[in-house]
Amino acid sequence: MGKIRLAVAGETRYAGRLADCIRKNAPEYLEVVSCCGIKELSEYLVKLQPDILVCETETTVNEDLQKYLVQIYLTTDRNYEKNKKQDESDVSYIFRYQSGSEIMRQIFHIYGQTARKSLVSRCKTVDLEMTAFYAPGGHELLLPFSMAYASMHGKSAKALYLNLSEFSGMKPLFKIKDGNDLSDLIFGIRQRKERFSLCLQSVLHYTEQFDYVLPPENSEDLYEIHEEDLDCLLTLLQEQTDYKKIIWCCGTLNRATGQIMECCGKIFCVVKENVFGKHRKTEFEWFLHKEVRQRMREKVKYVNPQMNSGGFVQGIDLLTQLQGGEFAEQVQALTEDGPNETA
To answer: pTM of the entire structure?
Structure first.
């Protein structure tokens, strides 16, 4: 899971001591970086991509970074809230002469109130191992590749497979014509959160290796799923189920799925080594090179599965082959841990 990155900046020893104090007491999902004594702070922050910046003096940061950054100023004024100027309604301050634990508590309170990136998917799901699959160039191998991965990794821990693809092919693969799907689950979350377990049971399907939820029958529903819906889903999965692995098959890249990908530990991008596949991969790499996509870029690994004549054998159940056939062996080889091929 992606960690929350907190940067502490200042020119005095106090800033350095504060960073050390927070680091010693920080939960596992918080990464603390000291930026004391760095001359070109704005440029450094662009490379660092922090979620929170705590600083002694008013520091100007890149405009693109401001959209994703919660900036908090340390002040010596106990009555800072009363003395705020009218044009500083969105500015956050913390009184500096307090215990480190209290400062950290206030930092998280401010972040929870103002951050555009919700705490839910970064903090409350730290025990979930999440992996995302995306195909910038050709989607026909996205389903079998991600399902073979789910089959392999579902043997060691309870796994849930969630598909966010248009016309994914799951229903004919599993020979299912009708039934509740992800749309019903999202609707249930919005209506009655306290009955999540019953709602989840009504949409779950099972294989020997993993559980799964069918994607929406109406593809338009995919574009109506919001970040808040997915955040709530992840929280409830963490609190009310015993899943340890979540596999996401993302057929499109919108704001919600982008947030999911940033919170995943790994992102496998299925690409094709033909002319148009290379063009689409190049465009995707340009997208990832934007400053605000650095975290996603660090997790991407490109894979190029081959559908040769021996990939699938006619007459043998496809699910069986995904779990242990030649194609499954190829998936295992391509997804073995190693250095990521970043864009």
So the answer is: 0.68
